[in-house]
Each structure stands twice: as C-alpha cells, then as structure tokens.
Amino acid sequence: MTGIEAGTLPPEYADLRGKRCLVTGAAGFIGGALLRRLVRYGIDVTGTVLLAAEAEALRDEGMQAEVLDLASGDAWDDLLRGTDIVFNIAAMFQETEHGEEMYDRVNHLGALRLAETALRVGVRRFIQCSTVGVHGHVQEVPATEATPFNPMDLYHRTKLAGELALLDLAASVEPHRMVITAVRPAMVYGPGDRRMLKLFRTILDGRFVMVGDGQVWTHLGHVEDNVDAFLRGAVAPAAEVHGEAFNIASAEPMMLADLVRLIAREGGVGEPRLRVPLAPVMAAGILVEAVCAPFGIRPPLSRRRVGFFTHDRAFDLAKAERRLGYRSRWGHPEGIRDTIGWYRARGLVAPRPGAKGQQAEAARSST
C-alpha cells in the first residue's frame, strides 16, 4: 500500500488473518498507530474519523477510511456489518469548550450504542479503549484493576461510565456472540505523540519548571506497547478477556522528578532545577478555568494540567500479563530516546546541544 511498508503477521497474532477490522479514532495517536500496524500486517482494516478531510488524508496514504461521529444519531449497521473486530479508540479528550453532556454523549452513550450495533450485526469482538484515569489519583501503589475508582475530571468520569456500561453489556452477552474487553492505557507517548510534546520541549530547551517537589508516581505507556495490548485483546481466549478490563503501561513506574531527569539525560541537556510551590499554581488553574469556561475557550492552565504534578499514577500489570499475554517491549530510556529522535527530526524540540555546530563543522570539512 502507498506510504506503508507491508510486514509479516507475527505468530502471536495469527488469529487476525482473514479477519475484517474497524478502528475508530483513526486520526488520533493510538488509533492511528493501531490502524497502521494492522495495515502493515496485511489485515483488512478500515479506520473511522470525525472529519471528511481526515478520511481523505488516510485514503491518500492508501488506507480505507470512513467518517463516524459517536455523538451523532446516525445508524452504523451498514458500516459495521461484515466486520469481525471493532477497536473503539475514538473519544472526546481535552476539549474543555464542551461540557459534560457532550463528553458523556461520546465517551459513554456513543461507545455503548456502537457496541450494541456491533452485537446486532454480528461483530465477534469489541475492544474498548478506556483509561487508567478511571483510578485517578490512585488509592494504592501500584494500582490493580480492582483498585477503587477515583475519576478526577469529566473525561475520566465519562470514560468510566462508558467502560462500566460496556462491561454490563458483556455480562448479558455470551462470549460466543461477542467478546467485549476494555483496555486502559496509561500516559501514552512515543513517535507521533503531540500530547506530551510540551513536557519534552520545555525540558529540552531549559524552560521546564517543576510544580511541587516531583515526588509523585508516574507511569508511561509506549504507543507500540499499547497497540500490542489491543491486538492481544483481539486474539486472547474469550474466557480470559470477556467482560474484563486491563491496565496497560510500559516497564516500571517512576517518580515524576526521575522522569524529568531521564528526559533531560536522553536529550543531552542539564537537569532542570526550577521549582514553584503547588498551591498558588493550582489556584491559578482554577481561576483560569473559570474565566475561560463561559467563552468556550480551552484554558492554557487548568486543574487537569496541574494534576500532572500532583496525582500518583502507578499500575500493576500482572493481570494483563497473565490473561492477555501482554509483555512490555519498551523500557523508558529506549522509548524516550525514540520519542526525542522523532521530535528532533521534525524540528519540534531543541536540537541536541552542539549538534548545529557539529553539522556546520562537518559541512565546512566537506568543502
């Protein structure tokens, strides 16, 4: 296919051969990575996106794409009929110009209606993308899937509502009709990511300021590890995954301060030293949110952003390893190095110190 190099289907995913798949949210980071992996494996897959222009962009890459809006009242029977596996990655996220009603319409009611349609037309597996954010500021470290829920904002609340609705549906459906599974990615990063770009950029250009002391747990998930988890959910024995949710992350959790040091080290820059107290920054976030909300403006500072510095996020992966057969392939140093390389190749972050001078010297030497 144009623009995408075909690859061999690994033995662990052999059951995907001959299956027809659909990936929602294919213009996004995780959905796009999953779509492209399936295409490389030679799987018959269609990606759905929210906008017609996004669909055209995927078609220009040689992929099959359709428009699907989870907030709409459209009928999806024709789109899903003949599909074997649905990966529902689409979601409303970080769109503070919308209120909880719209978030619920997409992340909860839309996901449920998509699954009900899939069941009605004969889809055999439905894998829902949830989030470890359903645990919020985790109540135990590391959190398991059984750790009490503690959603901290409307995104997490509505994703939790969607997950619980789908697992309730699973409880009423025999797995021979449709297997329903929820995968909860941790803080996803890797080549192609723009969500964590600001963190990397401020560290690599020396502008990062730690809010608080950085002694909170954080747990990253490389995008390719997350793709593996979704694919595992599509081929694992039904008895192991039907009606189950799985927390997914890469390697081990670490303190936020250690993550910042690791990004600086892998980027070849000095460790950031600037720190500010938490309380005034949180107060400012609340104020900025209140000012922006009536105008539908996405606030540059919010409680969610400040929560990055305050919320513990660390997860036990034993259930995913045991029942999904999931194994993280990406350690944090390798993944961060990989991500920085992708950012730098596109001029999105500062070049490695001395790189410009070395390139200029090499150019002079060649003349």
In short:
This protein is an alpha/beta fold. 42% of the residues lie in helices and 14% in strands. The chain has a 7-stranded parallel beta sheet with strand order 3-2-1-4-5-6-11, sandwiched between helices.
List the helices and strands and how they pair.
Elements: E1 20-24, H1 29-40, E2 44-49, H2 52-60, E3 64-67, H3 77-80, E4 85-88, H4 100-121, E5 125-129, H5 154-171, E6 179-185, E7 187-189, H6 197-204, E8 210-211, E9 217-218, E10 220-222, H7 223-235, H8 238-241, E11 244-248, E12 254-255, H9 256-267, E13 275-276, H10 278-292, H11 303-307, H12 318-324, H13 332-345, H14 355-365
Parallel strand pairs: 1-2, 1-4, 2-3, 4-5, 5-6, 6-11, 7-10, 8-13
Antiparallel strand pairs: 9-12
Helix pairs in contact: 1-7, 4-5, 9-13
